[in-house]
Write a structure and sequence with these properties.
By secondary structure, the protein is an alpha+beta fold. About 15% of the residues lie in helices and about 30% in strands. A hairpin with a 2-residue loop joins strand 12 and strand 13. It starts with a helix and ends in a 24-residue tail after the last strand.
Length: about 300
């Protein structure tokens, strides 16, 4: 039996060799992978959900430290699981959605409300010189502020720079199980904020199960007024357009409100200088008179390529 295994291994290693014992059709990458032999897989495959960016998670170096962090995380997951079980036993879902009534999902009123958000900029990934922060302002509201810089690092690798972003953490259940926000009953996004006259991007992430969908996002522009006055912004979900990795897609589709994973706000308008955006709350509401599914043409695009393995 051992000889059969050895013969199978040798046969597998030499199945692509030529007459001189070399691999004429394979590169070093394909020899290491041993599965894909076509370079076209690099155009569709995503090896990381973060696309190579740092996840920000705490990584232990020693086994003792890993055990300590694991037990610490286990306590949090058990508490979250108990809370989920209480919600299941209570079973009190929202059954009545009244027009004009805003359901608030995120409100900035104390320091603990900032734990739901992740703030990043290009300088955090050595891709620029922008700086930003999210904190509770002097008047008790969320303050997203910083300095935007579109100067490109002279490393010969980066061509564009200048962005600051605030995004919610991935919706998840206990024990790191992925989950989604279900906004399907709503028709409009509702925000109360005070801006500085800049234009921001509102990003609703709908990361799918497959790697080609990890960067799917629906975006719309948030126009703010300068000055001391607050503004309430109502944006129909039908106005959000489909994009991926910062590129607007030709083939549009309605926003799948039943599988939202993250919500974010980005400033990247190429106007160097300080910025600040005060936020009171972020919520959604229903308008019975709004029946638009999407505001963009859903025409069919002729595909001149075939996706295969």
């Amino acid at each position: 039996m051992q000889r059969v295994k050895m013969f199978t291994v040798v046969l597998f290693r030499n199945r692509f060799k030529g007459s001189f014992g070399v691999y004429p059709a394979l590169t070093d990458w394909t020899r290491r992978r041993g599965v894909h032999t076509s370079a076209t897989t690099l155009e569709f495959h995503e090896y990381d959900k973060r696309s190579g960016y740092d996840t920000g998670l705490e990584i232990a170096d020693t086994r003792t430290e890993r055990i300590r962090l694991g037990l610490k995380q286990l306590k949090k997951e058990i508490k979250l699981w108990k809370k989920e079980m209480q919600e299941v036993l209570i079973s009190d879902p929202i059954l009545d959605y009244r027009a004009g009534e805003v359901d608030v999902f995120w409100r900035f009123y104390e320091e603990s409300s900032l734990d739901h958000w992740i703030v990043t900029s290009d300088s955090d990934h050595a891709e620029g010189f922008s700086k930003c922060d999210l904190k509770i302002g002097h008047q008790g509201y969320g303050l997203f502020h910083g300095n935007l810089c579109s100067r490109v690092p002279k490393d010969g690798r980066i061509q564009n720079s200048g962005y600051c972003n605030m995004m919610t953490k991935r919706v998840s259940k206990s024990f790191q199980r992925d989950s989604f926000l279900d906004w399907s009953p709503y028709t409009h996004l509702n925000l109360r904020l005070r801006g500085d006259g800049r234009s921001y991007l509102i990003n609703i992430h709908v990361a799918g199960q497959f790697d080609i969908m990890w960067n799917d996002v629906f975006t719309f522009v948030l126009y703010t007024r300068g000055g001391p006055y607050w503004q309430t912004t109502r944006i129909p979900f039908s106005k959000f357009f489909f994009a991926s990795k910062g590129r607007i897609q030709d083939k549009q589709a309605p926003l799948p409100l039943y599988r939202i994973t993250n919500f974010g706000i980005t400033v990247s308008d190429k106007a160097d200088g300080p910025f600040q955006l005060e936020i009171d709350y972020i919520g959604a509401e229903i308008d019975p008179t709004h029946h638009e599914e999407t505001a963009y043409e859903m025409y069919e695009i002729q595909q001149n390529y075939i996706i295969g393995t």
